[in-house]
Amino acid sequence: MSDPQVTSRTAGTLGGRKQIALLVLCAQLFLDSMDVSLMGVALPELKDDLGLSAEELQWIISGYAVAYGGFLLLGGRAADLFGRRRMFFWGTAVFAVASLAGGFVSDGTLLIVSRVIKGVAAAFIAPAALSIIMTTFKEGPERNRAVGIFSLTGASGYAAGLVLSGVLTELNWRLTFFVPFVIAALVLAAVRYAVSPDPVRAGERPGFDAFGAVTATGGVLLLVFALTRAPKVGWGSATTVLSLVASVALLVAFVIIQNRRAEPLVQLSIFRSRTLSTANVVGLTWACATIGWQFVALLYLQQVLDYSALGAGAAIVPMAAAILVTVNVTPRVINRFGLRVPAVAGLLLQGLGILLFLRADESSEYVTVLLPALILHGIGNGLSFPSFNVAGVSGVADEQQGLATSLIQSALQLGGGLGVAVAAAVLATGGEGGLASYHRAFLAVGLFSLAGALAAALGLGPARTPEPDGAADAPDAADAAYGPKGAPGATDAPTDARKGTTDGSDPVVLEREGA
What we know:
By secondary structure, this protein is mostly helical. It has helices at residues 18-38, 43-50, 54-82, 84-104, 108-136, 141-171, 175-194, 210-233, 238-260, 274-303, 309-315, 317-337, 340-355, 366-393, 401-429, 435-459, 477-480. Helix 8 runs parallel beside helix 15 and helix 10 packs parallel to helix 13. The longest helix is centred in the first third of the chain and has 31 residues, at 141-171.
């Protein structure tokens, strides 16, 4: 998402502090990723301590994800226009303040507001951090290694959040807000030392599509609100109908705005690529499934099986381990079989792992019932995620790489918010706490995985394209994806490896260095 008017595209770090800069940027990404999963185990404690409803619990998760996804494109544009370090610094500052405030409040509405503000802040932090990496590290092996470390940090943060939330909640649920504040404060203190100032900009600033961001985010928020309220007020109620109508109107307005603006937030022509469009659909369904499942499963473990917060966090460890192992193996699978095979296989395994929770009852044995489902889900999760992320940036011109990676990120975050909303709505229709309602919720989110597998099978093109002689190295899967959190792995990486077809066919998948 670079701008030709920026006088220097190689804003490095001060002196030889590249590694310190990478450490600081990775620390914030770890925090953003961790915050996606950190609240899951704390939800029952929040419900009991603050007397929150199921709807409010859902918004604690969805509010962060929807705000993150809705403002991400605007955050990326702001980093280009107003300075990457500046956006990273102030985004982190807002994130830290919102975390601290969330730890002190005892009102459900204020807690949700703090989570929404953190989501908006994260939307400005992520693209700025990635742009700093892309302009700090030299194109080639140096940049690839930096992006690979950055990518693994995202995966580690998501997995760590699943586990650490149990430990923190066991002590006090407020620590799930205070610990992120401490990490964010440390990052904030180091930014000005580790990262050099933004380059001086010459010429007039390009346009800033605030209306596009507002209509897109407002449309999605109203859609999530309608899905959440409908089980209580009725699908035919004025609240539900008006919310859905307003949601559609705002989303249509977003499309109209993008078509008419000279410098739109999203160049809609990018969706002419079948591969890119399919990757975003798959990413949306993947997130609906995995984040929706997380919401339901952690409630089930604690409210039906009476696991403690620490026990629920520990129960997720095998799944987190399976994700981390598989994410590191998947690039070789992609090199061998192309994008379609691991994407489809991964989504089917993920869906199977979720649907195996239909066997769960009030006294399910962990080893025989839950553990196989968790491991299958983790393997499928780690196998499919890099595949559709690589597809999301394949065959896209260099100057649109930033937009492509922001789109896949937005799809993942919005999918997570919608998945939780659907899961919460299904849980509410059967009465809170009943085993049958949990089964229906597991079925609903599991079907998202199967829908994603079908989309990947139909839209990701040939399983493998023959490799031409003398072709350049293909992008490492890490270059196109963070971790299960869903953050993009590379913006503005003008390498020949990322050039491909624009007609929707799969790009050539080549062997990486050392693969």
